[in-house]
Specification:
Elements: H1 9-17, H2 34-38, H3 64-67, E1 85-86, H4 97-110, H5 120-140, E2 148-151, H6 154-169, E3 175-179, H7 188-197, E4 200-204, H8 214-224, E5 228-232, H9 244-253, E6 257-261, H10 273-276, E7 280-284, E8 295-299, H11 301-306, E9 317-320, E10 325-327, H12 341-357, H13 359-377, E11 383-386, E12 396-401, H14 406-415, E13 418-419, E14 421-423, H15 428-434, E15 439-443, H16 450-474
Parallel strand pairs: 1-13, 3-4, 3-5, 5-6, 6-7
Antiparallel strand pairs: 2-8, 7-8, 9-10, 11-12, 12-15, 14-15
Helix pairs in contact: 4-12, 5-12, 6-7, 13-16
Bound molecules: 4'-deoxy-4'-aminopyridoxal-5'-phosphate (PMP).
Length: 479
């Protein structure tokens, strides 16, 4: 049941009608008139006020054991009786009960399609959807809910920008600047745009620690004069945290529009889109304790207003005749068709949860886990760890065992209940730069513990001892 502080959406709707102030943690109520939502028109909402986060960070360090009981799946034992050690959070995170409850409460009590409905359930669902948008706007520090578009995820959001902004703005003479550390989601849509327009792609190189110096960025901006710089805030392989605020300033000075892929940042550190000042910021819900099928496309309002829509259909239009159409206002201009209603409700609840834990505390906790993993893995002979020191990375550690296959190591760990990811992690150009075809990746979140990191390091060391060191003794390399 979506009963934060005992309030359901119906109760919230009723109290809103009575003019009661919503409290911070309850599913927030839109600050615009309910009737206009029901009719499908979006008047100017009041800009969400206050800081980017919904609450101040916890003053004390994060205790994962405080939060683990809220995640039903973490109580699970695998078929071989091993407890689950879930270290695949960069791919997708797990869900606290309150997110599952918020979504099932909608399905069980007030689900209906949104906007334009004149019946009670449609009104309640619409209210919950638009309340969720307000929560998302607050979570990222957006100036207005007009700037918060519900997309299917990071990939869909980047493709929307590539189609809507890219097809409108990019010509054969233009250059798009990326980094070599991008996820395929932030490479392929631009390659497709290059196929359509003839524009050029340039890649910022990384150094051996997976970092990029400011002067490399400045030199590329000066030389290539890109129309767009699109970069990840945190590498999903190396864990490197790139200084997006500084680089956005440099890119703007060079006249470029900036897109930030925050898929590995938004769930793990406070995000303030106003401070970053990027033109577009995108991320997914399922890496933030939320459901799949939803993500956020943030765009600066002037830009979104000017841009043509990408997908056409219901909801994104104001009028349609046999001759043509006019578009609706933001944000629905970019939300053709039925939006991810229940997913938005789940995402908002996930954001409230993550905010209750405290994003500063989450960030510090993950850095401690990454530091512990680096300490535990570094002494293992023949292990190559990629990326920068712990103080400049998030909770992601990727490595290979020389002489061992990443798939064998992943299976070995899985038999011990430890879930990591192996392969290219949708970053083939980066792995090519690293000189390997794939890697093993352990990625942490708020519920992971130092004991789990120790279990990982011990199991990797045992794998090395059993399969690499022993076979070397039997067949020493010829000199
Ligand atoms: N960018 C980065 C940095 C990612 O880590 C991911 C997910 N691995 C994506 C984009 C794509 O996200 P999604 O699959 O949710 O669209």
């Amino acid at each position: 049941m979506m009963t934060m502080k005992g309030r359901t959406v119906s109760a919230a709707l009723a109290s809103k009608k009575k003019g009661e102030q919503s409290n911070r943690i309850s599913p927030e109520l839109p600050t615009f008139d309910t009737m206009s939502i029901l009719s499908g028109s979006h008047p100017e909402p009041v800009a969400p006020s206050g800081p980017a986060n919904l609450a101040a960070p916890l003053p004390r360090p994060l205790d994962p054991y405080r939060w683990r009981p809220e995640f039903p799946i973490l109580q699970r034992k695998l078929d071989n009786g091993k407890p689950l050690v879930y270290l695949d959070n960069a791919a997708s995170t797990q869900h606290p009960q309150r997110v599952i409850d918020a979504m099932s409460d909608c399905y069980q009590r007030y689900y209906a399609n949104v906007h334009r409905g004149s019946h009670t359930l449609s009104g309640e669902s619409t209210l919950a959807l638009e309340s969720a948008r307000e929560t998302c706007a607050r979570f990222i520090g957006a100036a207005s809910t007009h700037e918060v578009i519900f997309a299917a995820g990071t990939t869909a959001a980047i493709n929307t920008v590539a189609r809507a902004w890219g097809d409108w703005r990019i010509t054969a003479n233009d250059t798009i600047l990326l980094t070599i550390a991008e996820h395929h989601a932030n490479i392929v849509p631009w390659q497709q745009l290059a196929q359509r327009t003839g524009c050029k792609l340039e890649f910022l190189p990384i150094d051996d620690a997976g970092e990029i110096a400011d002067d490399v960025v400045e030199e590329h901006l000066r030389r290539t004069r890109p129309k767009l710089m699109a970069l990840t805030a945190v590498s999903n392989v190396l864990g490197t945290e790139y200084p997006v605020e500084r680089w956005t300033r440099l890119a703007h000075q060079a006249g470029a529009t900036v897109l930030i892929d925050a898929a590995q940042a938004a769930p793990h550190q406070p995000l303030d889109v106003k401070a970053w000042d990027a033109d577009f910021v995108v991320f997914s819900g399922h890496k933030l304790c939320g459901p799949t099928g939803i993500g956020i496309l943030y765009g600066k309002r002037e830009l979104l207003e000017e841009m043509p829509p990408f997908l056409g259909g219901g909801a994104m239009i104001r009028t349609v005749t046999t001759e043509g159409f006019t578009t609706s206002e933001l944000p629905t201009k970019f939300e053709a068709g039925t939006p991810p209603i229940v997913e938005a409700i789940g995402l908002a609840e996930a954001m409230r949860f993550v905010d209750d834990v405290g994003l500063d505390a989450i960030h510090r906790h993950e850095q401690q886990l990454a530091a512990a993993a680096l300490r535990g893995l570094t002494p293992i002979e023949g292990l190559k760890i990629f990326g920068p020191p712990a103080d400049r990375r998030g909770g992601i550690v990727s490595f290979v065992v020389e002489g061992g296959h990443t798939l064998d190591l992943a299976h070995w760990l899985d038999r011990r209940g430890i879930a990591i990811r192996d392969g290219h992690h949708c970053a083939m150009p980066l792995h090519q730069r690293l000189g390997v075809s794939g890697s093993c990746r352990a990625s942490f979140y708020l519920y992971n513990t130092l004991d789990e990191v120790e279990a990982l390091c011990a199991a990797v060391a045992e794998f090395h001892q059993r399969f690499i060191a022993k076979s070397r003794k039997r067949n020493p390399p010829s000199v």
